[in-house]
Design goal:
Elements lengths: L5 H8 L16 H14 L13 H11 L2 H6 L4 E2 L10 E6 L16 H5 L4 H17 L11 E3 L22 H16 L9 E2 L1 E4 L12 E2 L3 H17 L6 E3 L3 E2 L2 E2 L5 H4 L12 E2 L3 H4 L10 H11 L12 H12 L5 H17 L21 H13 L2 E5 L13 E5 L21 H9 L4 E3 L5 E6 L6 E3 L10 E4 L7 E6 L5 E5 L5 E4 L4 E5 L11 E5 L5 E5 L14 E4 L5 E4 L8 E6 L1 H10 L3 E7 L19 H13 L3 E6 L7 H6 L2 E5 L6 H9 L34 H4 L17 E3 L3 E2 L3 E3 L3 E10 L5 E11 L10 E10 L4 E9 L5 E3 L4 E3 L3 E8 L5 E10 L12 E2 L5 E3 L1 E5 L6 E5 L4 E9 L6 E7 L5 E8 L6 E8 L8 E6 L6 E8 L4 E7 L1
Parallel strand pairs: 2-3, 3-4, 5-7, 6-8, 7-10, 12-13, 12-26, 26-27, 27-28, 31-39
Antiparallel strand pairs: 1-2, 8-9, 11-28, 14-17, 14-25, 15-16, 17-18, 19-20, 21-22, 23-24, 29-32, 30-32, 32-35, 33-34, 33-38, 36-37, 38-39, 40-50, 41-44, 42-43, 43-50, 44-49, 45-48, 45-50, 46-47, 46-49
Helix pairs in contact: 3-13, 6-7, 6-14, 7-8, 11-12, 14-19, 15-19, 16-17
Organism: Streptomyces boncukensis
Protein name: Exo-alpha-(1->6)-L-arabinopyranosidase
GO biological process, one term: arabinan catabolic process
Length: about 1000
């Protein structure tokens, strides 16, 4: 979510100034206040060891911790930590957004969206970007605007397992190796290069398995052990282990039945990845969800106590009002739900971060003097341009359509709804300037070239045939409240209609180029772009049988109370507009003032090249709190592409989106396709550089592009292994595979050479491959190393990325690329013994330009171990199954543990290749049954319908967390068999044994 919290966030998005709570300490009035703040530490400096930079951080933290009262410790556990004047401690705030640049603090350098940063496949570049963002965060430190702080909430490492996720733009990749590498690079830049101090304190979001927005606080991500350890955790661990981040943010969702806010893995797993102290925070209002939407705890004191014990150090709750959190923690302390030692643990973590940030050093530490001049500096502008250029992916280049020759292209048609604008997203900073696609192309062509075309959207006027009046907006930046008042279709009556798919449009007033939005009471043309938490600039123009249109307000929720089915515009006799039902709505005729497609076709018809810029609107086509429901390019945009292509076969399509689209028609018919994400202020210059060959494209896709939504399982299915999800397991033919991206030159790969043909456990092998640029242009190639395990007890990925290197090669030149492969890299999770295992097997070593474009291969023999037959004679966790049907993983208790919960009759879990020896005699199981009556747990052999070996009756225990032990005699359970535990109906199984 966000650093601000819900209510204040909405007002900030609307451009309103909101005063901070007393004591928040995030802004100061005038030089005197600033001087007082600077003087505060000195006033309390005398004899305080925590102020002494010559002492170890641990000593300084313990000194400061020992000076705090219990009340002060509690006060520090909210996002807005108050000042402690008696110790000269200033206020501190967690959570500055910095996903692809510093956000919400004013103009700052805006880099490509996170998925675009990853599409560079260039960790060195991403480290430099992180360095720039960290510098700019520090650049705001002297004025401390509202929302500022040095605890940055970035990067997002939730894996892009499904392109329908509304927040796809925030993540890096569907692959944990690539995600971990890019996150580590960005975090390394943010934290700085000092061996002890931090430039900023970045926080990974959102732990864990959090990439569905539908019912996101109550949806339950089911993660069987292999999916959890091999996939989801693998994206978080690298940056933590490398010291590139200082903690994680807990997610909104539940994981295996337990809210992520109280996931014991925050302590038990995440803190085990590093020896450094970590500082964990909750997502905005996550603690409140525990008692509200999740209904997991009865009271907030119970909930906050549980979160604290699970590993949370800072509560992001109730925006900048800490009173509820302070009261809840104080009550928990008074009732003995937590002890002062629990407070000390969390406060120790947060003080450690603040100490490393240099806050308690007399001079502010090594990064304390970074000033505002770094923000939007010339160097950062150049870096933004480099990043936007490297992020461009050439999807298709038929017949050498690209690059364009500027000497021959004297007239270029640049058309499309994204040709003349740059959109920002929810976590974007404020653009300091904009270079649109048209501007970039016009600049590249110079005075000798001509750029024609437009946005290719219709301009209409909406007239009420009954009254003869038109919908009328205002002029000037502030626009006016829309009324039905115009007598003719002048500029204030004209609106440009941008289609974003599935019938949703935005209306931009021709009078002032501002979008029409709704504030809960009136419609006004005053918005620079569709924006805001509720995105109130969305409409639908619904055609009726008589040819008229109803204007439906299609925005998300409003700031006022809901209005049920009243979503259609109605004009009163005086022209005032209100919302009403469909049957009562005013009918309008849509008079076309300008046919956007016709103008685009006319511009394209005699152009040397037609460039169509289409794509998404980040606040509409999927975003936080709203998943995508279609992968298709918006219908009006798809029709525009077809129309332009008919007029000029030399059509190039630029896709500017935050995610993959199913552009199957475009792939078949359009000569050249480029993709970029919303790439920030330098987008136009970057696109022009690639289109005209000044830069050879080398961006690569970081997730699979599918041909159809039918290729995807249910959005809420998180078990990528069972559902054959992502390039790791997908068995269909993708539109564009993971790692795909073309170049203007060609590359030849030599045969991979291994430093050893056999790899033993604990060992390493070097994979070397010579790559030669065989074309006529200099260019970058992204060399990708994959492996495939040929034999295994368990289902293995079709191939898996193990390393990558972006290299630059001059035409005709070559270089040898080397990868180090460790035996432990080839491990997977062994459910039979609940630990990683490296199996003895042959691995294919695959080197190529994408997951499907393998250019060379060899074999590596790995000497590991053989997974023995399962032994179920000891206590076995039911969650360590091999396969399942009709069950969900559930919380064994609220504090910890996993159980298996049946959801239907004949649900089952399987344990394969079990050695039952000469005969197991007894089933013993720990079960819970909340409902009345009794059920059964049946042991079957060979299949879910195989011979019955035992049936145990499961009586009601009255509660899902109350377990009882049941037993049954086993018959015929001998030898090596697959064992199935079959449930009669809803019950939970924690552990069992067959002995």
């Amino acid at each position: 979510m966000t650093a601000q919290g819900t209510p204040r966030r909405h007002l900030l998005a609307a451009g309103l100034t909101v005063p901070l709570a007393a004591g928040a300490g995030l802004a100061a009035a005038g030089p005197a206040a600033a001087d007082a703040r600077r003087a505060a530490p000195a006033a309390a400096d005398s004899g305080h060891r925590f102020r002494n930079p010559d002492l170890p951080f641990s000593d300084r933290v313990e000194d400061l911790l020992g000076r705090l009262t219990p009340e002060e410790k509690v006060s520090l556990l909210h996002q807005h930590q108050p000042a402690i004047p008696r110790l000269g401690i200033r206020a501190f705030r967690t959570g500055t957004e910095a996903l692809h640049g510093v956000a919400w603090l004013g103009k700052a350098t805006v880099f490509p969206q996170a998925v675009g940063l990853a599409s560079t496949w260039n960790p060195e570049l991403v480290t430099r970007i992180g360095t720039a963002v960290g510098d700019e965060a520090r650049g705001f430190q002297h004025e401390r605007p509202p929302g500022w702080g040095l605890n940055l909430w970035a990067p997002v490492v939730n894996l892009l397992r499904d392109p329908r996720w509304g927040r796809n733009e925030e993540g890096y990749s569907e692959d944990p190796c690539l995600t971990g590498a890019i996150a580590t690079a960005y975090g390394t830049g943010l934290t700085g290069d000092h061996p002890r101090y931090l430039k900023t304190a970045p926080t990974l979001k959102h732990y864990i398995a959090n990439n569905t927005e539908k019912d996101r606080t109550t949806s339950d991500s089911m993660l069987p052990p292999r999916a959890l350890h091999e996939y989801y955790e693998a994206a978080f661990e690298p940056a933590v282990a490398a010291g590139a981040v200082t903690g994680v943010m807990s997610a909104y969702n539940l994981v295996n039945g337990r809210p992520a806010t109280v996931d014991p893995a925050l302590n038990d797993t995440v803190r085990g990845w590093t020896e450094k102290d970590l500082f964990h925070v909750t997502d905005a209002d996550g603690p409140n969800n525990l008692t509200n939407s999740q209904d997991y705890y009865r009271t907030l004191p119970e909930a906050t106590a549980a979160a604290l014990k699970a590993g949370i150090d800072s509560f992001t709750n109730d925006s900048d009002d800490p009173s509820k959190t302070v009261k809840a923690l104080t009550t928990a302390l008074d009732k003995g739900l937590i002890g002062e030692s629990d407070l000390d643990t969390a406060v120790r973590h947060l003080l450690g971060i603040r100490m490393r940030l240099g806050e308690f050093d007399p001079d502010g530490g090594p990064y304390g003097k970074i000033g505002r001049s770094v923000i939007d500096s010339p160097a950062h502008r150049e870096l933004a341009r480099e990043a936007a250029t490297e992020a461009v992916v050439l999807l298709k280049n038929g017949g050498g359509a690209l690059p364009l020759d500027a000497r021959r292209v004297t007239k270029a048609a640049v058309v499309g709804p994204l040709a003349d604008t740059l959109y920002t997203d929810w976590y974007s900073g404020t653009l300091p300037y904009r270079v649109t696609p048209r501007q970039g192309i016009a600049k590249r062509l110079g005075a000798a070239g001509e750029v024609t075309g437009g946005e290719a959207v219709d301009r209409i006027a909406l007239k009420n045939p009954d009254s003869g009046r038109y919908l009328t907006a205002g002029s000037g930046d502030d626009g006016a409240v829309l009324t039905e008042s115009g007598d003719s279709a002048g500029p204030t009556e004209q609106f440009d209609v941008f289609g974003w798919g599935q019938g949703i449009v935005t209306l931009r007033s021709a009078a002032n180029d501002r979008y029409v939005g709704y504030d809960g009471t009136a419609f006004r043309n005053d918005q620079e772009q569709p924006t805001g938490w509720f995105v109130q600039q969305q409409f639908a123009l619904e055609e009726q049988d008589d040819g008229t249109r109803l204007v439906r307000y299609a925005g998300y929720e409003t700031l006022s109370d809901g209005f049920g089915p009243k979503t259609y515009l109605k004009a009163a006799a005086d022209g005032a507009l209100s919302l009403t039902t469909e049957d009562d709505a005013t009918r309008y005729t849509a008079e076309t003032v300008r046919d956007g497609t016709a103008e685009a076709v006319e511009a394209a018809r005699d152009a040397d090249a037609a460039i169509v810029v289409v794509g998404s609107m980040p606040f509409i086509n999927g975003r936080e709190d709203h998943d995508r429901t279609s992968l298709a390019l918006a219908a009006p945009q798809a029709e525009l592409v077809k129309a332009v292509h008919r007029a000029n076969p030399r059509t190039i399509v630029v896709l500017q989106t935050s995610y993959p689209d199913t552009v199957t028609w475009e792939q078949r018919h359009i000569p050249a396709l480029l993709w970029t994400t919303h790439a920030g202020q330098e987008t136009g210059n970057a696109l022009a550089a690639v289109l005209f060959g000044d830069r050879n494209p080398a961006g690569r896709l970081t997730q699979t592009w599918y041909r159809s939504e039918d290729d995807l399982p249910d959005l809420l299915d998180y078990d990528i292994i069972d559902s054959d999800r992502t390039y790791l397991y997908f068995r269909g033919e993708p539109l564009y595979p993971f790692g795909h991206g073309l170049s203007y030159t060609t590359f030849r790969y030599g045969r991979p050479r291994l430093s050893a043909r056999t790899l033993a456990s604990g060992g390493t092998v070097t994979v070397s491959v010579h790559v030669t640029n065989t074309g006529g242009r200099d260019g970058d190639e992204v060399v990708q190393l994959y492996t495939r395990q040929r034999t295994s007890r368990n289902k293995q990925p079709r191939r898996q990325l193990r390393g990558f290197r972006r290299i630059h090669l001059k035409a005709g030149r070559g270089a040898t690329v080397r990868f180090t492969l460790r035996a432990e890299d080839l491990a997977h999770w062994d459910v039979t013994r609940e630990r990683p295992v490296v199996e003895t097997s042959t691995h294919d070593i695959l080197v190529g330009a994408s997951a499907e474009d393998i250019r060379a291969r060899t074999r590596l023999r790995v000497r590991g171990e053989k997974i023995p037959p399962r032994d179920l004679s000891g206590t076995t966790r039911a969650a360590a199954f091999d396969a399942y049907s009709g069950v969900r993983l559930a919380d064994e208790s609220k504090a910890g543990g996993q159980a298996v919960g049946a959801e239907q009759d004949r649900a089952w879990i399987a344990f394969r290749d079990v050695d039952l020896g000469g005969g197991a005699a007894k089933l013993t199981a720990r079960v819970a049954r909340e409902g009345r009556g009794s059920g059964t747990l049946t042991v079957r052999l060979g299949s879910p319908r195989g011979p019955v070996a035992a049936t145990a009756e499961v009586p009601s225990t009255g509660d899902r967390y109350t377990y009882d032990t049941v037993t049954a005699r086993l018959r015929g359970a001998r030898g090596r068999r697959d064992v199935y535990l079959v449930f009669s109906d809803a019950l939970r199984l924690s552990t069992f044994s067959l002995r």
